[in-house]
């Protein structure tokens, strides 16, 4: 379990970093009476009852169902007809429209509790769906095995695509630290253990991630050959990369006046180069290759990189730091503040569709909304997985439904 804890810590660190900022914190702005979202949870006038007619407006999010692999501590991937979740070294599958999460194993003789189960991935970590196959990272920080494993969408035919530990040993490294698998790429550091003097004359062992050997990226289907070493660019951080719509997003911290501020970049894997997008807004959001969407000073804002212009799309009436997640049909706002356990769903005409309370589902709001399918938003927390049906939104009565686990 230790390894999973570490991965979660790493992801949470990244989450915090995506939300970090050095610009002055938002003022507690009070907006007009009509902007209190709690009062705006009634259905929009022209929203038809019992349908998904609240879905409107022009979305910049690619028209594909997305898991929040870029931002969720839960390891989830979207396949062609359902969702995959890596949990306790087993891959689970939730078929679209079904209410039960099952081990990804079709063998009728299997109890799904042993290492020969199709759903089993030894020290299973990251999971991603790419080009018709499911890929998983298999290996611990210090295990004697560390691979990228490919399998068919039904869990069968496990194939080791690359032995990363062997690759690390070839460079004089001791083990692999996987940062991310996203958009068909695996990002990892080759780590070496080095004895250093702790100042008292006694030696201690330190893990020097990337210091001496470096960070690498690998096209997970093997089509780009051996892993490539990532460019070390002075300002750019190591490993802080995730997928955001049509961009692979990286960010950096720039020292300034004794503090620092953050910057977003798009990473281009073919050339290992970066394009500067914008300075980080006060909270995490959605940043494709054209514009960034985020919540700032009580408003949903859009910043267009080419013009450098920030537009206010709507005033939300929400004061404080709210994070934004963008989906093909909606925008969701939430805060990490323990004063508000609510998911605020907006359509792409920036109208509030419904505010759904998730109070009691967990303290870590980034971990609650874990992804979506065409018809549902998927939630994690309260001892398991749940969902909100999209067609139930907009009526002010959306319910949270449980997902049974095999
Ligand atoms: Zn099985």
Describe this structure in words.
This protein has 406 residues and is mainly beta. It has a single domain (2-23, 44-405), classed as Methylamine Dehydrogenase, Chain H. It contains 2 helices and 28 strands. The protein has helices spanning 2-18, 164-170, and strands at 76-78, 82-87, 90-95, 100-103, 124-130, 133-139, 146-151, 159-163, 175-182, 185-197, 203-219, 228-229, 241-244, 247-256, 259-268, 273-279, 286-287, 291-296, 299-304, 309-315, 322-326, 331-335, 342-346, 352-357, 369-372, 376-381, 384-389, 401-405. The strands form 6 sheets. The protein has an 8-stranded mixed beta sheet with strand order 1-2-3-4-28-27-26-25, with no helix packed on it. A hairpin with a 5-residue loop joins strand 10 and strand 11. Zinc ion is lined by residues 103, 105, 107, 110, 112, 117-119.
**CATH top level class name:** Mainly Beta
Q: Regions with pLDDT < 50 over 5+ consecutive residues?
A: 1-50
Structural class: mainly beta
Count of discrete alpha- or pi-helical segments spanning 4 or more residues:
2
The fraction of residues assigned to DSSP E strands is 35-45%
Q: What's the helical proportion of residues?
A: under 10%
What's the CATH architecture name? 7 Propeller
User: What does the main sheet amount to?
Assistant: 8 strands, mixed
Would you report the number of β strands? 28
CATH fold annotation:
Methylamine Dehydrogenase, Chain H
Helix and strand element order:
HEEEEEEEEHEEEEEEEEEEEEEEEEEEEE
Distance between the termini: 20 Å
- The overall number of domains is 1
Mean pLDDT: 81
Q: Which shape, going by the Cα principal axes?
A: globular
Oligomer class:
single chain
Q: Hetero groups bound?
A: zinc ion
């Amino acid at each position: 379990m230790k390894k999973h804890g570490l991965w979660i810590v790493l992801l949470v660190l990244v989450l915090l970093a995506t939300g970090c900022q050095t610009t002055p914190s938002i003022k507690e702005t009070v907006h007009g009476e009509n902007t209190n979202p709690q009062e705006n949870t009634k259905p929009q006038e022209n929203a038809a009852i019992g349908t998904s007619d609240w879905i409107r407006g022009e979305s910049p999010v690619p028209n594909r169902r997305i898991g929040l692999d870029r931002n969720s501590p839960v390891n989830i991937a979207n396949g062609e007809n359902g969702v995959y979740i890596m949990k306790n070294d087993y891959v689970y599958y939730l078929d679209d429209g079904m209410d039960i999460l099952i081990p990804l194993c079709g063998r009728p003789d299997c109890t799904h509790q042993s290492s020969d189960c199709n759903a089993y991935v030894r020290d299973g970590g990251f999971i991603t769906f790419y080009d018709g196959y499911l890929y998983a990272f298999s290996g611990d920080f210090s295990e004697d095995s560390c691979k990228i494993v490919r399998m068919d969408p039904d869990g069968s035919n496990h194939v080791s695509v690359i032995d990363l530990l062997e690759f690390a040993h070839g460079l004089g490294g001791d083990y692999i630290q996987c940062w991310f698998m996203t958009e068909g790429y695996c990002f990892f550091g080759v780590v070496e253990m080095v004895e250093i003097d702790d100042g008292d004359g006694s030696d201690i062992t330190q893990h020097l991630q990337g210091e001496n050997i470096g960070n690498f990226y690998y096209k997970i289907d093997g089509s780009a050959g051996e892993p490539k070493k990532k460019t070390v660019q002075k300002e750019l951080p190591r490993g802080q990369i995730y997928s955001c719509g049509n961009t692979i997003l990286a960010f950096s911290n720039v020292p300034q006046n004794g503090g620092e501020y953050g910057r977003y970049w798009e990473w281009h894997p073919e050339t290992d180069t970066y394009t500067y997008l914008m300075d980080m807004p006060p909270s995490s959001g959605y940043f494709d290759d054209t514009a960034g969407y985020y919540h700032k000073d009580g408003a949903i804002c859009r910043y267009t990189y080419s013009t450098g212009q920030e537009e206010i799309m709507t005033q939300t009436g929400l004061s404080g730091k709210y994070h934004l997640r963008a989906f093909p049909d909606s925008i969701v706002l939430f805060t990490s503040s323990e004063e508000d356990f609510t998911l605020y769903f907006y359509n792409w005409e920036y109208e509030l569709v419904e505010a759904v309370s998730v109070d009691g589902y967990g303290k870590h709001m980034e971990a609650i909304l874990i992804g979506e399918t065409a018809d549902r938003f998927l939630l994690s927390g309260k001892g398991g997985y749940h969902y909100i049906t999209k067609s139930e939104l907009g009526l002010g009565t959306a319910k949270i439904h449980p997902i049974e686990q095999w």
